[in-house]
Design a protein that fits this description.
Pfam families: Ppx-GppA (PF02541). The structure is a single chain. The chain is α/β, with parallel strands linked by helices. The chain is about 45% helix and about 20% strand. The protein is built from 13 helices and 11 strands. Helix 2 (about 55-75) runs parallel beside helix 4 (about 95-105) and helix 10 runs antiparallel to helix 12. The chain is globular.
Length: about 325
């Protein structure tokens, strides 16, 4: 058995997954992955990146503190190998050298030479797909996986274990939409209209590049989708087991989205299932989901999202496990 870790640093959050990898001939991949621990902290690394083109010093510091905590956990759990990926916020920032130096210093305590790496939108899409469909039946495909992040949203259509039929990383996410177009709290009708138009433009790009019409199952993953599922189910607390595999039907979801978009961050935060660090950007995420549904309805008969708690982190673990020369 080999204990490995994945860290995903996005625009809004930094997350950790530690898994035990065991060699077994009964698994098609030749190994199994058993989750040890999964953590998430809102650090808003992408704070103002869209406006300034740079990572804010206090955002880097928040991320450093969170990663310091994760490294301590990895050392306590005797992690042998780690991969950290960074996506939209770091990819877009002109001053990302400070960020990379910080990650190298901390991750080096776990594995010599380890540091964050910026992955392309294409690899982000591949990893998100690999993680999101792990628990879904093969015959439910082709799948369209939609990973809605803080700065970008990945759209991927494929069968399990096959080459991607199409993928695109759209430059929209809950933080980007909120900061750029919905700064008021709650947003004005004009701001919402501008945000709707922005999302529609991004969806016109997706329509040209991704075969949405081929998907039999549409999978939504990451914080906006999972939080909406918790709200739709009326959960008293955030419960990943009840959220994973749940279904959000478009007709009912549209009613919920209207409520989320027009309420204030303080009102959203009063619900125990909404993370305090997500309350102010959930409205922007809701606008994105509404535009995504509009696009799907133009090209596909599917009228529901299957919600996955698994995503790029699980994809990183799976890919990392496949590179291990010897599984003890």
């Amino acid at each position: 058995m080999t204990r490995i870790a994945a860290v995903d640093c996005g625009t809004n959050s930094i997350r950790l997954l530690i898994s035990d990898i065991t060699r077994t001939s009964s698994a098609p991949s030749g190994f199994t992955a058993h989750e040890v621990t999964r953590r998430m902290e809102i650090v808003r690394l992408g704070q103002s990146v869209d406006a300034t083109g740079e990572l804010a010093p206090d955002a880097i510091e928040r991320t450093r503190r969170a990663l310091r905590n994760y490294v301590n956990i990895m050392k306590f759990e005797n992690v042998e190998k780690v991969r950290m990926v960074a996506t939209a916020a770091v990819r877009d920032a002109k001053n990302n050298r400070e960020f990379f130096a910080m990650t190298a210093e901390l991750l080096g305590e776990v594995e010599s030479g380890a540091q964050a790496e910026v992955i392309t939108g294409e690899e982000e899409a591949e990893l998100s797909f690999l993680g999101a469909v792990q628990d879904l039946a093969d015959d439910a495909g082709p799948f369209c996986v939609i990973d809605l992040g803080g700065g970008s949203t990945e759209f991927i259509v494929s069968e399990k274990g096959e080459e991607l039929l199409g993928a695109h990383s759209a430059a929209m996410g809950c933080v980007r939409i909120t900061e750029r177009m919905m700064p008021s709290d709650p947003p004005s009708e004009t701001e919402i209209e501008i945000a709707d138009d922005f999302v529609a433009e991004r969806m016109s790009e997706v329509e040209k590049l991704v075969p949405i019409d081929k998907a039999r199952t549409v999978v939504g993953c990451a914080g906006t989708f999972t939080t909406l599922s918790a709200l739709a189910q009326g959960l008293e607390h955030y419960d990943p087991e009840q959220i994973h595999g749940s279904v959000l039907r478009f007709a009912a979801l549209r009613v919920l989205l209207e409520q989320v978009i027009h309420t204030s961050a303080a009102q959203r935060a009063q619900n125990a299932v909404v993370h305090p660090g997500r309350a102010d950007v959930l409205g922007g995420g809701a606008v994105a989901v509404r535009g995504i549904m509009d696009m799907i309805e133009r090209h596909n008969g599917v009228r529901e999202f299957v919600i996955s708690e698994k995503d790029i982190l699980d994809g990183v673990i799976w890919k990392l496990a496949g590179t291990l020369p010897v599984l003890k």
